[in-house]
Design brief:
Blueprint (H helix, E strand, L loop, with lengths): L25 H20 L5 H13 L17 E6 L7 H6 L4 E7 L2 H11 L6 E5 L12 E6 L8 H14 E12 L4 E4 L9 E4 L3 H10 L2 E13 L2 E12 L1
Length: 250
């Protein structure tokens, strides 16, 4: 089945050409890195079972209202449930999970053209209730109260501190009243540049505000924190800690 056109206007700016010196812009090597490793990352990430993520997705779904109209009409009316995913990757498993709910229209965004291409391959042939956008999330623009929920898995911590804070304010604006936000964050209060990430020559950037700093950022962004906890998960041979935050627009 063909994918539907977006039900929400977006003025996402075209992605700039890579800068000559990636050291000057972390997002340049984030984009280039995910473009380079996209198939390998998909093969690793798509079958992963992450109990914390699964549990929080179930909590998010339980907090959303029942659609006011039958599902066949929901993708084109303001009463439908609309979900924005920031950093969708290849679309498996999370984006795919949300598309299984016919009452949702899902808008999924990623900075990597290769990841969006994989998401298009995995999702669009079978799903009508999804719109894919290739963009830097910080350049997105949606009308206020566009979404019932906004989720960001393993993505917001790729932004520098000031851009994370700005994104939280935007997210709060995009959410409908009582809309739900779910994301995980880096626990450590520092910027990290990883060399040879996933394969030789790939550089990756992440940034954390610390547990208290992240909660403060979410609250000052205009959201009410419902749950906030640090959970560990296996990444390769190591256990990595992430801060999971579930919040609601007041």
């Amino acid at each position: 089945m063909a994918a539907s056109s977006s039900i929400l206007p977006s003025t996402a700016h075209p992605l700039p050409n890579p800068t000559p010196n990636p050291d000057s812009d972390p997002k340049t090597y984030i984009r280039q890195g995910y473009d380079r490793i996209a198939p390998k990352y998909h093969a690793w990430a798509s079958p992963r079972i992450v109990p914390a993520r699964t549990a929080y997705i179930e909590k998010l779904l339980s907090l959303l209202p029942e659609p006011e109209i039958p599902p066949p009409l929901s993708s084109s009316t303001p009463n439908s449930l609309t979900l924005l995913e920031l950093g969708c990757g290849s679309g498996v498993p999370c984006t795919q999970t949300f598309t299984f709910h016919p009452q949702f229209h899902v808008t999924a965004v990623d900075i990597s053209a290769a990841q969006i291409a994989l998401a298009r391959e995995h999702l669009l042939p079978n799903e009508e209730n999804i719109t894919l956008i290739h963009s830097d999330m910080t350049q997105l623009s949606f009308p206020p109260s566009s979404f019932s929920a906004v989720v960001a898995f393993y993505s917001l911590f790729h932004l520098p501190t000031l851009e994370q804070e700005s994104m939280l304010r935007k997210i709060a604006t995009w959410l409908r009243p009582a809309g739900v936000f779910l994301a995980n964050f880096q626990v450590e209060e520092k910027e990290v540049v990883r060399e040879d990430w996933f394969e030789k020559g790939v550089r990756m950037f992440s940034c954390g505000l610390g547990v208290r700093g992240t909660r403060k950022m979410v609250e000052e962004g205009g959201l009410v924190v419902l749950e906030d906890e640090v959970k560990g998960e296996k990444v390769g041979s190591q256990e990595v800690m992430f801060q999971w935050v579930l919040a609601r627009k007041g």
